[in-house]
Structures are given as structure tokens and as C-alpha cells.
Amino acid sequence: MAKISDPAGRGIKRAGIRDVARLAGVAPMTVSRALSFPDLVSAETREKITAAVAAIGYIPNRVASSLSSNHTMTIGAVIPTLRNSIAADFAEGFSRVLRARGYHLLLGNSEFVPGDEEAIVVEFLARRVDGIYLTGATHTERTRKFLRDNAVPTVEIASLPEDPIDIAVGFSNFGAAYAVTKMLAEQGHQSIALFSTFTKDNERQVERQAGYRAAVREFGLDDDPSLIAELEMDLKAAAQQLRLLLARRPDVEALFCTGDFIAAGALFEAQRLGVSVPRDLAIAGFEGLEIAENLNPSLTTVRIPRYEIGIKAGEMLLDRIAGRSIETPVVDMGFEIIERESTSREAANRPAVAGTTFRRRSPGE
Amino acid sequence: MAKISDPAGRGIKRAGIRDVARLAGVAPMTVSRALSFPDLVSAETREKITAAVAAIGYIPNRVASSLSSNHTMTIGAVIPTLRNSIAADFAEGFSRVLRARGYHLLLGNSEFVPGDEEAIVVEFLARRVDGIYLTGATHTERTRKFLRDNAVPTVEIASLPEDPIDIAVGFSNFGAAYAVTKMLAEQGHQSIALFSTFTKDNERQVERQAGYRAAVREFGLDDDPSLIAELEMDLKAAAQQLRLLLARRPDVEALFCTGDFIAAGALFEAQRLGVSVPRDLAIAGFEGLEIAENLNPSLTTVRIPRYEIGIKAGEMLLDRIAGRSIETPVVDMGFEIIERESTSREAANRPAVAGTTFRRRSPGE
DNA sequence: TTGTAGGCGTTATCAC
DNA sequence: GTGATAACGCCTACAA
Q1: Contact between the CB of A17 and strand D at under 7 Å
Q2: What are A76-105's pLDDT values in tens digits?
Q3: Which of A169, A225, A340, B192 can bridge B254 by disulfide, Cβ–Cβ 3.0-4.6 Å?
Q4: Which residues in 53-72 of chain B line strand D, with CB less than 7 A from it?
Q5: What domains are defined for chain B?
Q6: Cβ B107–A108 below 8 Å, yes or no?
Q7: Distance between CA atoms of residues A351 and A347, nearest Å
Q8: What is the pTM of this model?
Q9: Strand C contact at CB of residue A40, distance < 7 A
Q10: What is the 8-class DSSP label of residue A350?
Q11: Is A102 strand, coil or helix?
């Protein structure tokens, strides 16, 4: 294999715009124009330059152009984790929009630690990103201040913050959790348990718990605190928590999980314990992952328009960067409850019930 | 909310190193040194500068420093997709190593299209990344040439390429698939089906099919081509293909899926069809996802050290960038077959068999 | 349509 | 230990 002699890149003098200009017999500025705005250059000149670029193997230096133009064509994205996470789906839609418009994504993992997020944001600012993408709406005061002081277009994803840093695209976590709990209540369940992931520094989970609690109050459901557990987004943790729950409250009738993998883990454990779903225990998930509709019984869940949220966020942020005015700074992309076998009262007797769906906007919309 | 007046960032004159220098009463060069190499500056000067930085709210401009120093502290990563993909796990380990050493990740999605990968790589080169991370070993000739000509440290992930661009970290896809098929054969299965994802431009899947075929030949198994299907990494597609397979070959005894989600989809469909696993059909997966051990029956699979591969790749690439010599350019991180209930001969009669594991290096190691 | 001058904000280099 | 100077490679602004 060809040995790469100088990893640091020193000593290798890459071709510059001057080299191209010399070969094409024009001024450097003309080369710059020919590459950025081909229409501003005569066809003849353009061809000479194109040929020179190809001959030399010239690759423009975007670092220099960024310094000069004050645009990096880069968006910094803070994402808690890519593992088992719908955050990856948001980011994927977002990144597709960016790429189509010549922007690239600089990635930072915060691991759900606001302090880490702050450090990442500062690093992004140092790199002079043109915009910033934050997952969720829980940030340190300094993060908010940095972003506003530096006037960096910023989009917050997955929530509907009351006081957004700049713009936001998401859905009502409160409303979705409320709707699921209400649905379970209307099916006659009185003791509805809640498995959520950790609420620390995660307003999405806080909102979902709040939505659950609001429904519990409104419908006069069992409000025993031992019906609630916080755990990792992890199948095994869900299995363990289900065993603990059944030990504490063997009479529990329904279980609402704020993540489909948690619901799946609970469902699998129920099967192992001989607890029939939905006959002995109804289970509902959250997120609308592909696996939900394939489980046996199929899983009732809330479909979040993950991909669409990412795309909308990308479009809005780029509009923002382009200086176009934003009609609504906080966009609610809604959610959809998908009722399937895991909460079907009939499925207790006859399995394989087809799922029915209906769409709701978040309350207050 | 505070209005951000100027999205493009113009008109807002950020504080520069000169401003800090003036306030601290030193030269700009001294400020630069104090921030990059605090030890080279007297304690007194350092304090004055630290105070000035805080007072002004100075955030250094890394674009300028990159241009000047010829280091961007950025690695460009090409990842086919973040959805349902172990590629996200590789990247997560990789990114953690980078961050600990001050590097950041620039992300590009190739969607498994080598031409797109090439365009992304060129863009990365234009941005003068210090290193490049590629998923897999299938790249266009031009991509390889660009990277070698420009002497950019490059790591290829997930395969063991014979002719690596620079360095590589992965495992033997061939060896792992061979081992699974062999295991099934030794359990007495004669007709073993294969569900893999698309082999087009994906040498990992090509290698896995090749490993399967090698075992089929070696053990004199049923080599009916209709036992093989290519499909998306998708539970529903797996369900559909299982129905087709059972229609074609109702006598099939075992099914090897080159992805755990495919295996899960097939397992769920088998349950719906009343096909008992493993009694009527043994099923094995690939990847070693968390879900595999939680299914009922638990799923036999191949554990890939996903996270570890990412970490090793990060360490090697940074070593490469630092100019340290690399002992082995292609590192095999091995794999581990995890036998669980879904292929257990005894589980047909008594369920809930604990999984047993053993570790193997790739053949030839 | 093309070219000239100057500067973007930092760091390498060498002198003090 | 500190500072002056000259790049880094391109683009903005203006001129021809």
C-alpha cells in the first residue's frame, strides 16, 4: 500500500488558487469567481479555469474562505446520544436538508449533561458555526446567554419551549402522554403505571410525567407513587422494573412506557412471567418505532413525526440563517396515537386485531 | 424573547485577540501563547490575560487558528445511515475518543452510495479535516486516490480490507457468518436459509454471504439458491420474506439473518404463523444488539464489539495524526457467537435455557 | 468581464 | 518570558 509520509500534512504544499490562476492565465480573483459564481465569468475563461483546476487537482481551501467570508457553511448539533435514540432520527432528517443546501454537520455528544452541552456549544462558537441545533429545551443559563449574545441562529428540537432561545420544532410531550393515559383510563383502567426514563435534565421526560399525572388527576385514577418508576432506555432495565412493579402492585392494570424499547422489554418480561398482554396487563409505548407494530401483541404507541421534525428544523434554521423572516418561532409538529393489540380489550380473547389510528394536535393548538 | 437582529452575523464585531491583548497590556502573541501553552507564560501575565478574556467574553476564532496552524482538529466521518444501524454505535465510541482529545466530528451521510461518499470526502478535504473515518471498505477508486494523494490519515471501519487506504479496524464478516452457519450445521440442520441486507456496494454483506456459502459447501448443506434472500434492515420486510421463504421451502430448518432486527422480524412473524422457534425453525441473528437477549425465545447472535471498534479506531487514527508509528494497519477486533434459545435443540421442549457463549478470533488470526 | 488592494484573526518564526 | 513581523489562502470592496 502507498505509504502516507507526512500525517500532519506539513511539507506537502497543496495547490492554491494562485496556481490555478497562473495556469489559466487569469487573476486569482477570477478563479474564485468562476468557482463560486460561474455566471459572472465568460464561457471562455470558465473553461480555461475548469481545465486548470482539473489539471492541478485543485481543492479549494474552505478554511480560508470561511475566514474571509465569515461563513462556515457548518451547523453544530448537540445530540445526547446516538444509541437507541429517536434523536438519531431527528438528526438524520435534519442532516439531509443541510446537505442539499451545502451545509455540513458538526456533531457533539452531550450524554444528557447540560454542562457538557455548554462546553460543546462554546467550542461550536469558537468554530464559528453558522447555526446550532440543540436536542431538547433544557440548557444552562450560560448556554442560552452565549447563544443570544453571539446572535447565532439556534433551533431546539423535540419540545415546545415557552421561552425558546431562538426557534424550535417539536411536539407536546405533555399532550401526548396525557392522551395516552386518557385513552387507557377510558378503557376502564384504574391503576395505570408509568415507566419513564430519567427526568433529570430532560424536560421531555418531565413533561411526559406531567401529562400522565394530569390525566391521573382528571380521571380520578389511582395515584399511588409506587406506580411510577424511572429507568434507563433499556430492555433489561424494563424487565427488572416490571418484576418490581408486579411485586409491589400485583393488581396493576395498565402500563404506559415513555419509550418503545422500554415497552418492548416490559412486554417480553410479561410473556416470560406468564402475564398475558393485554388481558392481564395493557401496555402502551411511545415514539412509534418500527418494532412496535411488529411485536406480538402489536404495541400501542404514540407516533412522533421524527423524520419530519428534523426536516422542518433544517428548513427553518436555514431560512433563519438566510435572513428570511420566521412566521412562528415554535412549531408544533403534533403526534399520533396508534392503538394496537397491546391495549385492545377484545384482543384479550381474539388476537391479531388490526391497529386503528387517529391523529391529534397537541392540546391548545 | 430577545430578538436576534442579524442572523448572518455581520455587523457584530466579535472581540478578537487584539482586544484581549490591549486590555491585558501585552502583545497578541502573548495572549495566543497563554491560551495554548499556559506554561510558557509567567503566572502574572497569565492571570492578567485570563481576567481580560473573562471580562471581554472572548471566544477564540478557530477558523483563523486553523488557517494559520494548518490543523482543524476535525475528523470527517462518512456514515451510511444512523437509523437502525450499528454504524451509529461505532461512531459513538469513536466520537468519545475524539472529544477527549479536543477533536470534533464532521458528519456525512452516504446512504450506501459510493458516489455520494466521494462527494462528501472531497468536501471534507476542502475543509482540511485532519483525518477521515469511512464506514466499510467499499469506496470509489477516485475516493481512494484523493485520500492517498492528499495524505490524509484515514480509518476504515467494520471490515478487514486487504488493501486498506491507510488503516482499518473491524472484524471478519466472512469468518463470523461462516461460524454461525457451521454452528447450525453441526446442530444437524441441512437446509439453512440466509436473509441478508443488500450486497450492492456493501462488502460487509458480500463477505457474510460468502462466509455462509463457504460453510454450505464445506458441510455439504442444501445449496438451493431460493434459500437466500436480500432485503432491507427492516422488521416488516423480514416478516414478508419469511412468508415467501416458507412458501418456497416449507421444509427449511434454520434461518440465519445478517442483522438482529431482521431476525427479530422473522421471529415475530414465525410466532404469528404458528411456526415454533426453535422447534420448527431455528433462527440466528447478527450484531449482538440488546434486543437479542430479551426476545422470547432469546436470540442466538454474533456479538460485534461495536463500541470497542469505535474506540480503537479513534485511538489509532489520532496516533496516526500525531505521527506515531502504527504497528498493524488492519486490526481485527474479533467477534463472539452467543448461543441462545432460538437455536437450542433442547429449548424445543424446555424453554428458558440460559445462553452460553464462547469467543473466537477470526480465522487466520 | 476582469483585476487590484487589503484584510479576515490567528500562529510560526525569529529576535530581543 | 515577551514581542514584532509575516504569512495562512481566500474573499469583500472597489476600480478599470
Answers
A1: yes
A2: 999 998 887 789 999 999 999 999 999 999
A3: B192
A4: 64, 67-68, 70
A5: 17-60 (no CATH), 72-171+306-333 (3.40.50.2300), 173-304+338-349 (3.40.50.2300)
A6: no
A7: 5
A8: 0.90
A9: yes
A10: S
A11: coil
